[in-house]
Amino acid sequence: MELRGRAALVTGAARGIGRGIALALADAGVDVVLADLAEGGGAPLTYELAGRAALEAAAKEVEQRGVRALALTCDVRRASDADAAVKRTLEVFGRLDLLVNNAGVVHFEGLATFPEERWDLLFDVNVKGVFLMSRAAIPALVSAKGTIVNIASVAGKRGYAGGTGYCSSKFAVVGLTQALAMELASSGVRVNAVCPGILPTHMWTGHLASAERGGKVAYDAAIARMVPLGREQTPEDIAQAVLYLASAPNVTGISLDVAGGMEVW
């Protein structure tokens, strides 16, 4: 599928993977709606979420690539926000060809001490958010014969100690991707997922590689221990996978690893 002239909605687009995806889509000639919480939202996390300034800066970078951009505040946990984001996309761009469900949060901790509110938050954002955004976008995507790309994780294919909550939520995203691909196939809408490995995004550096967890030394050690190709992944790596899945007309229901060999199935 030719991407130039299409329109995409990317959640969690203010920084990290989402920003990288938005920029890659812009380089491919796609108009992009960048949606993000753009505030802390009272989320019980151990790291800081992106703010409005970061979202607007990312949208400006997209525009500088010669396409249209729209920055939207959107809490994917709310059906009203999901519906409003799709409605606004159609009002401004007149179409929606690609939904990238990238918004996500992380918390690693042993199950015995895992706070209930953080467990609920993981599933509200990582799973319910994908459900609500996809449900809101389906009519427009059916009309455009468009596609959905969900950002899952290698933690959605293999369990990791301390990752009961995060792994469970990402396993759910992989299952949702497979089932929705079957549901929408007859409508010409494809649904796939990308499973990133280890990236230097705020989720990693602010939580999994925080000072109390060993900082950069622990982060580098994890890469050396876990990634056969020996380097971290980048937002650009993930974005290239999204571009492929967005334009591959006969691929649906897959969860594509971009993890340097961490997982191979």
Essential attributes:
globular, alpha/beta, Rossmann fold, seven-stranded parallel β-sheet, 265 residues
Layout of secondary structure:
Blueprint: E1 7-11, H1 16-27, E2 31-36, H2 52-63, E3 69-73, H3 79-93, E4 98-101, H4 116-144, E5 147-151, H5 164-184, E6 190-196, H6 202-208, H7 215-226, H8 235-247, E7 255-258
Parallel strand pairs: 1-2, 1-4, 2-3, 4-5, 5-6, 6-7
Describe this structure in words.
The protein has 265 residues and is α/β, with parallel strands linked by helices. It has one domain: 3-Layer(aba) Sandwich (Rossmann fold), CATH 3.40.50.720. The chain is 46% helix and 14% strand. The chain has a seven-stranded parallel sheet, with helices on both faces. Strand 1, helix 1 and strand 2 form a beta-alpha-beta unit. Helix 1 packs across helix 8, helix 3 runs parallel beside helix 4 and helix 4 packs parallel to helix 5. The relative contact order is 0.15.
